[in-house]
Amino acid sequence: MIRSDKRRGRTLAVLALGCAVAWGTGCKKEEAAAPVALDAGVAAVAVRDAGSQDAGTVARVKKPLRFSDVTLTKNRYRLDVTYTLTNPGTAQGRGDACLSLHDDQGLVIHQVKLGGITVKGGTSDTFEDRVDVSEAYWKQAQAVLLYTADAYDCSSGVPKMTSERFQLLPSGQPAPAGTPAPQAPGAATAADFAVSNVRVSQEGSSDNYSVSYVVKNLSTRRVSGKGCLRAYVAAGDRFLEEGLVGDFSLRPGGSETVTDTVIFEDDKHWDEVKVLRLFTSPYGCADGADAENAGITFDKPAGIHAPVEGVDADGEVELDPDNNDAVVDVPDEAQDPVDDHGGDEPYSDSPEDTGH
Questions:
Q1: Residues 211 and 290 in one domain
Q2: Domain check: are 219 and 160 in the same one?
Q3: Same structural domain for residues 79 and 156?
Q4: Does the N-terminal or the C-terminal CB of the chain have fewer CB atoms within 10 Å?
Q5: Is-contact 134 107, C-beta < 8 A?
Q6: How far apart are CA 269 and CA 317, in angstroms?
């Protein structure tokens, strides 16, 4: 995550009554300071009477933060977001900056935390953040929402945002009039998904493994989730390997074929694995599989095995250009016919040379 150190704006001065730093012993009470004129355009801040118990404290006014100067840059699965936050109140604004993707009905596809924010009252602050956003989510997005929330509360969405709403298109252009208002996110459960048609494959003898499956939304709301593939030496054992396989966001009753790469920590385990299980849930492998979310369990296809070192996906031997000891089998070049008569001149059977 990249955070900008730029700071913009101007902080309101706060006058405090107190004791001067002593050049002698003791402390002399000063007379009350004369009122100071505020700059034009700066809102007045309430200050208590000097004789009261809380003399000198400033009344803190909390107002929603405002987004401006927002830019979006998408690069494969990464999204760079630059934005300015302005605090029109006098109380410090703190919490998290958040981003959510919405479909053409305003339903939430995906939410993500951009980063923690702190903006002093009466100032502006510019931030730069980088987050991961799956292509499966981004390609369905019709609008992007930026908002702030209390710390660790981005998932609550619109109902608990602490900023003004800022909507734009995935292209970075302002959202046009008539763009559906963003809806509150719906909580998904593992029971919302059904999985079928699981296929696991390997390219030749290489370390390229992939999985495809069909997932369906059984609920009456839009839900998002992830797939998880676990590998076992035997059914009932603790899993030997696991990997996230695919992100998806589905309309009510919708289905999608998901294809993704399978990545294990140690590919040699493919020779030990006998059983595979694929399940789906809101957070994939982080949710775990249990009796209520068993997913689909199946035997590992017989043709899948650990990769063979030095062999590519087509079964050809890979040459290492950095290894000087590598043996390269180069076909012999065509040679001129050899003179069996022992002469120094090349052998020829033409009539001119033989005299026949």
A1: yes
A2: no
A3: yes
A4: C
A5: no
A6: 22
CA atoms of 132 and 53, how far apart (whole Å): 51
pTM above 0.70, yes or no: no
Report the 10 Å Cβ neighbour count for 218.
13
Q: Please name which of 281, 234, 233, 241 lies closest in space to residue 262, comparing C-alpha atoms.
A: 241
- Is-contact 68 86, C-beta < 8 A? yes
β strands within 120-222, DSSP E? 123-132, 143-149, 166-168, 193-202, 209-217
- Domains of the chain: total: 2
Amino acid at 298: F
144 and 228: one domain? no
Enclosing domain of residue 266: 190-299
In whole angstroms, what is the distance from residue 295 CA to residue 279 CA? 4
- Kindly state whether residues 74 and 125 are assigned to the same domain: yes
Contacts of 252 by beta carbon, 8 Å cutoff, 6+ apart: 217, 219, 220, 221, 222
Q: What is the pLDDT of residues 295-313, one digit of tens each?
A: 899 999 999 999 997 655 5
For residue 309, the one-letter residue type is: E
* Closest-CA residue to 185 (of 224, 139, 227): 224
Q: Encode pLDDT of 275-293 as tens digits.
A: 999 999 999 998 877 777 8
**What's the one-letter identity of residue 186?**
G
CA atoms within 13 A on the CB side of 37: 3
Residues 115 and 127: their CA atoms lie apart, in Å, by: 9
Residues 212 and 283 in one domain: yes
The position carrying tokens 């007045």 is: 44
Please tell me whether residues 206 and 288 are part of one structural domain.
yes
Domain for residue 58, yes or no?
A: no
The identity of residue 251, as a single letter, is R
**Overall residue count recorded for the chain in this entry:** 356
269 domain-assigned: yes
Give me the helices (H) in the chain, please: 135-138, 351-354
The pLDDT score that the predictor gives to residue 187 is: 83
Q: Compute the 3-state secondary structure of the chain and give helix, strand, coil in percent, each to the nearest 5.
A: 10, 35, 55
207 and 112 housed in the same domain: no
Task: Give the chain's end-to-end CA distance (angstroms, integer).
Answer: 88
Domain termination residue (choose one: 299, 324, 340): 299
